[in-house]
């Protein structure tokens, strides 16, 4: 499992990757539509052994990200989009169930 960069290094990496398409969704651009990219997606997901290198990433809008994630992970994306994980836990970090009690 590849560790993602966190903190300011992760922010700089994300900004650099988004700049490659001037902050626009690659799949929308391919269809001739300029749409703001909101997600730097891993083409081969990290969870499936993909690398965290620029060549394994692409810039997507929210709709395209949901679409490709649904293809890669079955029904996980639509469930996640409702704010609940596969096990039924809320995904929001500020939900009371996700608060640490230490
Ligand atoms: Zn798009």
Describe it for me?
It holds the Pfam family HNH. Helices cover 35% and strands 8% of the residues. With 102 residues, the protein is mainly alpha-helical. The chain has one domain. Strands 1-2 form a two-stranded antiparallel sheet. It is globular. Zinc ion (ZN) binds at residues 25, 27-28, 35, 60-61, 63-64.
Features:
hydrolase; 4 helices; single chain; mainly alpha; HNH endonuclease; endonuclease; endonuclease activity; binds zinc ion
Put the structure in a nutshell.
The chain is mainly α. It is 35% helix and 8% strand.
Give me the oligomer status.
single chain
Number of helices, counting only DSSP H or I runs of 4 residues or more = 4
Q: What's the total count of β strands?
A: 2
**Nearest-integer average pLDDT:** 85
β-strand amount: 5-15%
The Rg value, from CA coordinates, equals: 15 Å
Overall number of structural domains: 1
Bound molecules: zinc ion
Largest sheet properties:
2 strands, antiparallel
End-to-end Cα distance, whole Å, is 27 Å
Strand order of the largest sheet: 1-2
Keywords: Endonuclease, Hydrolase, Nuclease
GO molecular function: endonuclease activity; nucleic acid binding; zinc ion binding
InterPro entries: HNH, HNH_nuc
Protein name: HNH endonuclease
